[in-house]
Design a protein that fits this description.
Elements lengths: L1 E4 H15 L3 E5 L25 H5 L4 E3 L4 H13 L3 E6 L9 H7 L3 H4 L9 E6 L14 H5 L5 E3 L4 H13 L4 E6 L6 E4 L13 E4 L4 E5 L3 H13 L5 E5 L2 E3 L3 H11 L2 E4 L8 H12 L9 E3 L10 H7 L3 H12 L3
Parallel strand pairs: 2-3, 2-4, 4-5, 5-7, 6-7, 10-11, 10-13, 13-14
Antiparallel strand pairs: 1-8, 6-12, 9-11
Helix pairs in contact: 1-7, 3-4, 8-12
Length: about 325
């Protein structure tokens, strides 16, 4: 097992898959240059340093800087995928997905269905998402709930460097379009990563991060760490929490959630997207519909309010779910009679 940062797991996995398969190509804004560099082998690899060194290894035909046009990036990726390539397209911020929704929603997500299963679209769209960087309302959003609701797309949200490795490798090898969401605040997190070149994590298989019999906590991405902190704190008081890392939201591991709630009888869903029509609301509804008889208290959702992400640091901190808010939700369920 090697130790590496989340961002380095992204770069190394892409490089390994490019070496393995000559059809894998990378494209996006500043994936070669970035931050004022001139590009070339010494370029940093974009503002997140998630394509560093790829240009020097694979050249201009497989690592392609694009114009500042998300619709062009995704349109090119969809065409490449139909033509037999395996493109990895990067959108610098998930917030910019709006101008490429036609290509994603009406094209990539529907190619296989519209062509009667006679074609495939093996494309990966990587995006940095999430708040906590004081980047304001247009560069801090979590858009996974919208993408999860689009049939034909697979949506993945890794929480650890190891999951980046296994899930990104699965995404690149998949024959359908995959949205790969990377939380900005996780890029510098370090963890152990398996050395096996065929280490793959299948979509739709959640990870049990903590085990307990009193409350089920469901989350993903950055917020999973807060859930683990709460579970560890409560464990010292004799309160056991199942903490479930979803890994992917489409497909969703319904079985893992329902099996846990059948034991605990209590559910807290923690999500960074606003509450209306959200993933948290969807999972609460899932449990209410399919595990109602097991519930000892109403499911709780810990989310931001239904507002844009604030710019002011103090307001952004108040906006986001926190360990204190998660703990309060758990204690509220335990007090229910």
């Amino acid at each position: 097992m090697a130790k590496m940062m989340y961002r380095d797991a992204v770069v190394s996995t892409i490089a390994e898959e490019m070496e393995r398969d000559a059809n894998v190509v990378v494209l996006g804004e500043d994936v070669v240059g970035g931050m004022g560099t001139a590009g070339g082998p010494e370029a940093i690899g974009g503002i997140w340093s998630t394509s560093t060194g790829l240009y020097g290894k694979f050249g201009k035909d497989r690592v392609i800087d694009t114009p500042i046009s998300e619709s062009a990036i995704i349109g090119a990726a969809s065409g490449l995928a139909l033509a037999g390539k395996r493109p990895i397209a990067e959108l610098m911020f998930a917030d910019f997905i709006g101008v490429s929704l036609d290509q994603i929603w009406n094209q990539m997500g529907k190619f296989r269905y519209m062509f009667g299963g006679k074609t495939r679209c093996p494309a990966v769209i990587r995006m940095a998402y999430g708040a906590g960087y004081n980047a304001a309302a247009q560069h801090s959003q979590s858009v996974h709930q919208m993408l999860t609701g689009m049939p034909g797309l697979k949506v993945v949200m890794p929480s650890t460097p190891a999951d980046v490795k296994g899930l990104l490798r699965a995404a690149i090898r998949d024959d359908d379009p995959v949205i790969f969401l990377e939380h900005k605040a996780l890029y510098g997190v370090t963890g152990e990563v398996p050395d096996d070149p065929d280490f793959v994590i299948p979509f739709g298989h959640a990870r049990l991060s903590r085990a307990g019999e009193d409350v089920t906590i469901v989350s993903s991405g950055l917020l999973l760490g807060f859930c683990e902190q709460v579970a560890d704190k409560l464990a010292a008081e004799g309160i056991g929490c199942d903490v479930i890392d979803l890994r992917s939201t489409s497909p969703l591991d319904e079985e893992a959630i329902l099996d846990s709630v059948e034991v605990t009888g209590r559910l807290v869903v923690v999500d960074e997207a606003p509450p209306r029509c959200s993933l948290a609301t969807d999972i609460c509804a899932l449990v209410a519909n399919k595990a109602f008889a097991s519930l000892k208290a109403p499911p709780q959702a810990v989310t931001p309010p239904h507002t844009p992400v604030p710019f002011a640091r103090e307001l952004e901190s108040a906006y986001l779910p926190s360990a204190d808010k998660i703990e309060a939700a758990v204690r509220k369920l335990l007090a229910w009679r």
